[in-house]
Amino acid sequence: MPTYEYVCKNCGYEFEKFQQMTEDHLKTCPECGKDALKRKIGAGSGIIFVGSGFYCNDYKGANASLGNPTSKKKPAAPAAKPAKKAKK
User: Fold this and answer.
1) Domain membership of residue 31 as a residue range
2) pLDDT by residue for the chain (88 residues), tens digit each?
3) Could you tell me if residue 16 is inside a domain?
4) Is residue 7 part of a domain?
5) Which end of the chain, N or C, is less surrounded by CB atoms within 10 Å?
6) Total domains present in the chain
């Protein structure tokens, strides 16, 4: 449930109210009692992950790269052979 911000156009009282999205917005100011409340338009809040275990690759396939999921990994270059020692 979202938290809505209200301001009274009559007395300037501002407050927040925790409401369901389907509820009608409040009209009567709890401070002055007039029907002059206006619900403010807020930017909202971002998603907050609480706890451990939220990683960028949690929902990707086992072979997916971190960048573009459709990109294919390049094969690894063969290991270089050690140089031969010269005989004396």
Assistant:
1) 3-39
2) 788 899 999 999 999 998 888 999 999 999 999 999 999 887 666 666 666 766 666 666 555 555 555 555 565 666 666 666 666 6
3) yes
4) yes
5) C
6) 1
Report the distance separating Cα 32 and Cα 34, nearest Å: 6
> What is the SS3 assignment for the chain?
CCEEEEEECCCCCEEEEECCCCCCCCCCCCCCCCCCEEECCCCCCCCCCCCCCCCCCCCCCCCCCCCCCCCCCCCCCCCCCCCCCCCC
Tokens found for residue 82: 């050690």
Flag whether 11 is in a domain: yes
Task: Look at the pTM and tell me if it is higher than 0.70.
Answer: no
